[in-house]
Amino acid sequence: VRSGGIPGAVMYELHGSMIALGPALEGIGGDAIRERIGERRGVLISDSNVMPLYGHKLADRLGVDPADRFPFPAGEGNKNRIEWSRLTNAMLNRGVGRDSVVIAVGGGVAGDLAGFVAATYMRGIPFIQVPTSLLAMLDASIGGKTGVDTPAGKNLVGAFHHPELVLIDPTTLRTLPQREYRAGLAEALKHSLIDSADHFEWLNANTTALTALDAETLAQLLRRSLSVKHRVVLADERESGVRKTLNAGHTIGHAVESASEFGLLHGECVAIGLVVEARIAVALDIAKPALIERISVAAQSLNLPTAVPESIGVDAVIAATRSDKKARAGAVEYALLHDVGHVASAQSGYGTAVPDEVVRDAIEGSR
Ligand SMILES: NC(=O)c1ccc[n+]([C@@H]2O[C@H](COP(=O)([O-])OP(=O)(O)OC[C@H]3O[C@@H](n4cnc5c(N)ncnc54)[C@H](O)[C@@H]3O)[C@@H](O)[C@H]2O)c1
Ligand SMILES: [Zn+2]
After folding, report:
1. Which of 87, 109, 143, 219 gives the lowest tally of CB atoms within 10 Å of its CB?
2. Are 254 and 335 in contact (CB under 8 A)?
């Protein structure tokens, strides 16, 4: 953590990104973005919900030409190559050149999609992230991963491309729907689980304040989560080792998300994944049985689901795990917890292969 930089902000530096937590977009935050853009041409990409809430206001403040504001329809179902193609064509038609900066405003979908547009447009132009969902603030906007989903699975086409600046204004969360906010808390739960018992206990002790969106508790949550993500990505940018710990809950989570055909939110699937993967860890004798209960109770107190819904078949989930990026030479890898604060198999790169029968039992055991 660095102080200085932007007044009143908690600053982090990560592989060339400046991350600023705190400053309001309609004040110092907006000024910081304008300064960063400087003489370059700013183009703003935002989804159809966030553009009218924050995108246009910020674009006005930054002097972005109305024709250089590119909305796309909100939702995970639009984080795909069709929208990537439409957005890049629109930018080409407007004559957006290499001297431009993409400003991505919205949740993780806007960040991943606009980031991938920036990563590929004319072989890569800079971008700035303005995350407005909790999930994007504490996870998706940090770490340089951009990309889109494909019919074969999530995030399978993408690029590493770090934003120049990530500007996090937590007051934008006031308009975020409750269900989306809770989904973001699932990633905070994951961060606490891979971090330490202390972090996990802090989260458990503050669920009421967090559900009520208490500003000071929320600021602390963001600081804690950002520190974990920052530390891990700093140590292993390209995910050859410790960054894999961030995949906890995500092998099952991504599979359930694909199998639900976007009926469930990413964070909801991560909560389910954390519980099901704890069951897997217990079945493999990697964790003690009490871990399942500890994680389930924490998820429930954040009003998050803990079981794969009956409407989603076990076979569909198992089939979906195979298209996950974490599948290596046919074996699906899991970042399993040994205990709160400890991911198992550090010697073998934090990946554990799991037989299908064990996955099947864990999914069925969760419902
Ligand atoms: N790149 C990474 O490292 C990384 C990490 C985690 C997740 N992700 C990706 O992030 C995505 C999920 O992100 P998400 O949960 O933010 O979804 P999202 O971007 O779809 O946003 C959720 C919903 O909230 C709306 N919204 C966002 N901010 C709002 C605000 N302030 N007020 C009102 N409405 C608002 C959006 O329009 C959308 O309808 C997934 O695609 C996931 O794969 C990426
Ligand atoms: Zn996630």
Report:
1. 219
2. no
